[in-house]
Amino acid sequence: MKFSKNILCIGAGYVGGPTMAIIALKCPEYKVTVVDVNEERIARWNSDDLPIYEPGLLQAVREARGRNLFFSTAIAEGIRAADIIFVSVNTPTKTFGLGAGMASDLQYWEKTAHQIVSHSDRPKIIVEKSTLPVRTAEAMERILKENKKNIRFDVVSNPEFLAEGSAVNDLLSPDRVLIGSQQTESGAQAAQVIADIYAHWVPADKIITTNLWSAELSKLVANAFLAQRISSINAISALCEKTDADVSEISFAVGSDTRIGSRFISASIGFGGSCFKKDILNLVYICRSYGLNEVADYWEKVVQMNEYQQERFVKKIIKEMFNTIVAKKIVLLGFAFKANTGDTRESPGIPVAKKLLAERASLVICDPQALENARRELAGVDGDVRYEADPYRAVIDAHAIAVITEWDVFKELDFEKVFSVMQKPAFVFDGRNILDHQRLFQIGFNVFPLGKPSLTHF
Ligand code: NAD
Ligand code: UGA
User: Fold this and answer.
1) CA distance linking residue 255 with residue 267, whole number of Å
2) What is the residue-wise DSSP string for 43-112?
């Protein structure tokens, strides 16, 4: 079949894979190729054992794969054939040199820009899909324009707002699609080509066009605002525990104000995921580099509050279990950074597990999707840790359960059965407030929710 356009995506990760699967599904007249340097990842995208767990994704991939969706490691060939190139490589926090621990590490992204230049022989539209510091497109344009072949490249920013665990739905029904371009005739034309892709299924009023810098910065700001709400309610959860107020009641009462809204104000052991912390630290770094220290301090507090919340959770476990957890068996229910994903990047489960192991607890980690990644995260960490997919086996002889991830399967456990096989006194620390605390108390557990009065038998 002759395709009307060739789309290439460089980077077959949590964003590149699902985004291109949905574009291919909705635009059968476009050929969509996803390339990556990671051969194993590409092999899994070409199988039914996809490299990421995402509800509904396998079905979408199966429908388009081989028709107009292709996964490959042939990067040079892909670049040559492409009309439009989405760059969706990772942009982690820098771990070395200037800006270490704060700034974005742009080495993968820059390498991609050079690859595009060396393998292109005609004009292309380059789309920033990765989350990048504001004004990165300027550097990208400079690299692309330095080519001796005199090829025209238009750079467009099209940040991705999908959340893991709901990626397919978020892509099918986005709140908005944001496209930023240079305010020139060719910039506007390039933005229109990208808008035409999304127009296959996204209503026109949800496709927002802005200048390049607003699009780049909007992405960092959106993540900062979302994370800020979580840190705000988590700060209040600490106050609730001192005053016998109930943080869930507060979330409901406060969130009922339509100006505030009810989403993203559930108290937790802290936000995780590959982006919130990384993007806020990047925002902080950018602000400091412009001398805006008060602005930087303001946003940095959001991250500090998140770390405080994780530490508070561990301290509570130690204190309530009579100030020692040496050799006590503690089951972490969940390790993914949120439900419906196997992703453990920046999961609050990681610092919690490390701190509990440092106190010489005996850990059992139980998660329906994230055990493979959990093993990787804790590789090389000293201590007694076991991985168990079956929660009923995990809790045998346990002294305590700590809920890390809000998986539905944990809400539906038979807690009488769980209680019967645990050591006594049996403790539950609910880091997500997902369990029926009164019922657990009646069964005999000592229950420690977040931001609510404890329910104890002593
Ligand atoms: P990821 O690590 O899952 O995937 C990135 C992929 O790029 C990897 O498979 C890596 O092998 C590949 N890659 C790196 N350099 C390459 C090169 N030169 N050539 C070919 N392949 C290369 O990352 P991700 O979670 O998909 O995130 C990608 C970007 O999207 C980041 O900037 C992130 O901030 C942003 N983002 C992520 C999410 C999310 O939910 N994960 C949501 C919105 C935005
Ligand atoms: C987040 C944003 O929601 C996406 O819009 C964005 O595209 C993405 O980051 C990104 O740039 O990577 P994601 O991290 O996948 O998506 O998942 P979220 O649903 O935002 O959850 C992030 C963390 O916050 C999770 O650990 C979650 O458990 C926690 N959370 C969320 C809370 O603790 N309380 C809440 O009320 C909501």
Assistant:
1) 13
2) HHHTSSS-SS--TTHHHHHHHHBTTTEEEES-HHHHHHH-SEEEE----PBP-SSTTTTTSB--HHHHHH
267 Cβ below 6 A of ligand 2: no
Strands 384-387 and 153-157 come out as unpaired
Closest ligand 2 atom to Cα of 222: 5
Q: Which residues contact residue 304 at a Cβ distance below 8 angstroms, ignoring those fewer than 6 apart? A: none
The gap from C-alpha 212 to its chain's centroid, in whole angstroms, comes to 24
CB atoms within 10 A of CB 458: 5
* Mutation choice for ligand 1 from 57, 75, 88, CB with most ligand atoms inside 8 A: 88
Query: Residue ranges of the alpha helices (H) in 290-390?
Result: 293-320, 349-358, 371-377
Catalytic annotation present for 9? no
Residue 416: Cβ within 10 Å count:
12
Closest residue to atom 28 of ligand 2, CA basis: 338
* Whole-number Å distance between alpha carbons of 400 and 29: 55
Q: Please give the distance, rounded to the nearest whole angstrom, from the Cα atom of residue 192 to the centre of ligand 2.
A: 30
Q: Which of ligand 2's atoms lies nearest the C-alpha of 270?
A: 33
The rounded distance, in Å, linking the Cα atoms of 10 and 127 is 10
Residue having the nearest C-alpha atom to atom 10 of ligand 2: 275
| Ligand 2 binding pocket includes 280 (Cβ within 6 Å) | no
CB atoms within 10 A of CB 323: 7
φ, ψ of residue 229 in degrees (nearest 5) = -65, -40
**Interatomic CA distance for residues 156 and 190, integer angstroms:** 7
CA of 97 to the centre of ligand 1 (A): 22
Tens digits of pLDDT across the chain (458 residues): 789 999 999 999 999 999 999 999 999 999 999 999 999 999 999 999 999 999 999 999 999 999 999 999 999 999 999 999 999 999 999 999 999 999 999 999 999 999 999 999 999 999 999 999 998 888 888 898 887 888 999 999 999 999 999 999 999 999 999 999 999 999 999 999 999 999 999 999 999 999 999 999 999 999 999 999 999 999 999 999 999 999 999 999 999 999 999 999 999 999 999 999 999 999 999 999 999 999 999 999 999 999 999 999 999 999 999 999 999 999 999 999 999 999 999 999 999 999 999 999 999 999 999 999 999 999 999 999 999 999 999 999 999 999 999 999 999 999 999 999 999 999 999 999 999 999 999 999 999 999 999 999 98
pTM for the model stands at 0.97
**Of all protein residues, whose CA lies closest to atom 37 belonging to ligand 1?**
15
